[in-house]
Amino acid sequence: MDIMKKIPENTRILLVEDEKNLVRIILDTLVQEGFEIEVAYNGNEGLLKFHEIRPHIIVTDIMMPRMDGFEMVKRIRETDRNTPILFLSARSETDDVVTGFELGCNDYLKKPFGIAELIVRIKALVNKPRVERQCKNFYTLGQYMFNPISQTLSYQGVLSDLSHRESEILRYLCENREQVVHTQSILLELWGDDSFFNTRSLHVFITKLRHKLAKDKNIRIVNVRGIGYKLIG
Predict the structure, then answer these.
(1) What is the pLDDT of residues 1-37, one digit of tens each?
(2) Checking CA distances to 170, which of 27, 114, 120, 198 falls within 20 to 30 Å?
(3) What is the mean pLDDT of the chain?
């Protein structure tokens, strides 16, 4: 995919950031690139503007007054699972990155960042084909029933919820059951980027899924060293 191709006309970005100097730099640059920009300075304002303008992409900080980026994205994802979201943050600990992806963000850019990299990331998300995958209503995994639509896992009639990212990963593994799936393939398919942070996040999510599938010993997600993962059972 050529991420430097022209952006679709009238592409609206919602920028949610409380650092006014950074807002000014990003705003000037993105306007020159042909984007329409709406700015909010905290999560509460960002949530209101999201429902008002329905942007094509959201670029947001995490640490903000009144409502942080995590809470804002959580509320947005309750009604909208498709609008691409890019987190900007100085917080790069694995737990923070994982939290962001669990909530449904699509990319994560660590501060300080180069403005050119921000533009490339935004264009990649905007130009990423938004093809709705034909998804099965459920998968049978031994004694488990996995519903990717409702993002739930059922064991002997007891339901447990999966996060958005956990559900996406498990669905991908189900679609390729009994086959070795390359780590890079999962990252590019679900994250759109095979960066170091995303690789660490994937490992954390795989560990969580293993715990949630542990009641049936016949269902396993095995690590194929140096290659990727394989869903068995």
Answers:
(1) 343 445 566 789 999 999 999 999 999 999 998 999 9
(2) 120
(3) 87
Residue listed under structure tokens 């690139």 = 33
Tokens 């979201």, located at residue: 85
Question: What distance in Å separates the CA atoms of residue 199 and residue 204, rounded to the nearest whole number?
Answer: 9
- Alpha-carbon distance of 43 to 75, in angstroms, equals 10
Asked which of 107, 127, 147 is the last residue of a domain, the reply is 127
One domain, residues 169 and 111: no
CB count within 10 Å of CB 223 equals 14
Give the residue numbers spanning the domain of 26: 12-127
pLDDT > 70: what percent of the chain?
91
CA–CA distance from 47 to each of 99, 145, 167 (Å)? Answer: 19, 34, 25
Residues 128-143 pLDDT 10s: 755 444 456 789 999 9
Main-chain dihedrals φ then ψ at residue 47, nearest 5 degrees: -65, -45
What does the alpha-carbon distance between residue 156 and residue 221 come to, in Å, rounded to a whole number?
20
Rg (CA), the chain: 19
**Largest CA-CA distance found in the chain, in angstroms, rounded:** 57
Asked if residue 119 and residue 29 are part of one domain, the reply reads yes
Residues contacting residue 220 through CB under 8 Å, at least 6 positions apart:
210, 213, 231, 232, 233
Instruction: Give the DSSP letter of residue 10.
Output: T
Residue reference for tokens 């084909």: 129
CATH of the domain at 26: 3.40.50.2300
> Strand 85-89 relative to strand 107-110: parallel, antiparallel, unpaired?
parallel
